[in-house]
Structure formats: structure tokens, C-alpha cells
Amino acid sequence: MVKINGRDIDIAGKTVIEYLSAANYDPKRVAVERNGEIVPKAQYDNTVFLDGDSVEVVSFVGGG
Q: Which domains does the chain have, with CATH numbers?
């Protein structure tokens, strides 16, 4: 199980981009923190979530 934004989700073994796509996030408009470290967008395709990871996904919202 991976804890994402406080919820346990069974996605161990999936990449960041796989999760973002499945959860309908726009990868260009989010920041992903895994175990206290920001995941660079260039690494979304090959960063794999591991059992026990703690992840925060933050969406950017535009406005004026």
C-alpha cells in the first residue's frame, strides 16, 4: 500500500505517471512529493511507487 494524500492506495509497482493518469491528474499541473522529496517531472515515467511510500500530490490552480 502507498499512502497518497493521507489515503492508502494499492498502487505499489506502478509509476508516478501511471497513477496520475489513472487518477485524472494533469501531470503538467501537479507536483509530486515521495517520502519527503520532490519527484522531478522528467522522472515521472520511471519512478516506481514502493510498498510503504508516503506521497503527496499537489495540484496547481490558476486564477487572477
A: 2-59 (3.10.20.30)
Alpha helices in the chain (DSSP H): 16-22
Instruction: Give the C-alpha separation, 16 to 55, whole Å.
Output: 10
Read off the pLDDT of residues 17-61 as tens digits, 9 standing for 90 and up. 999 999 999 999 999 999 999 999 999 999 999 999 999 999 987
Cα–Cα distances in angstroms (integers) from residue 54 to residues 27, 62, 64, in the given order: 18, 26, 32
Please check whether residue 57 is in contact with residue 25, taking contact to mean a CB–CB distance below 8 angstroms: yes
